[in-house]
Write a structure and sequence with these properties.
By secondary structure, the protein is an alpha+beta fold. 25% of the residues lie in helices and 26% in strands. The chain has a 5-stranded antiparallel β-sheet, with no helix packed on it.
Length: 93
């Protein structure tokens, strides 16, 4: 968050309007564009209905995203900061 209270690109926020958590990607007119933490389609959100996530909420949101990926078979490879799980080198031996 900027010193003046404005949300900046890269901030993780909760959208009270939709009940979703998203990453601030930019702005268009009076709205901010948010994208789900795991990627996906952006949506417009009213800045007045957004609040930044605290550390416990951010951790919870990231764990929920990792769990969702594991249930769909997408794994952790696309999550920023995730350990490398590529086993192709092991398979080649």
């Amino acid at each position: 968050m900027a010193d003046d209270g404005a949300l900046v690109v890269g901030a993780v926020v909760h959208d009270d309007g939709s009940g979703r958590v998203g990453l601030v990607m930019g702005h268009e007119g009076p709205y901010l564009q948010l994208r789900p933490l795991g990627g996906g389609r952006e949506w417009d959100a009213d800045p007045a209905r957004l609040r930044p996530l605290g550390p416990p909420e951010l951790l919870s949101a990231r764990v929920a995203e990792a769990n969702a990926r594991s249930r769909t078979g997408l794994g952790l490879g696309d999550i920023r900061g995730a350990p490398c799980t590529d086993r192709s080198e092991d398979d080649a031996r």
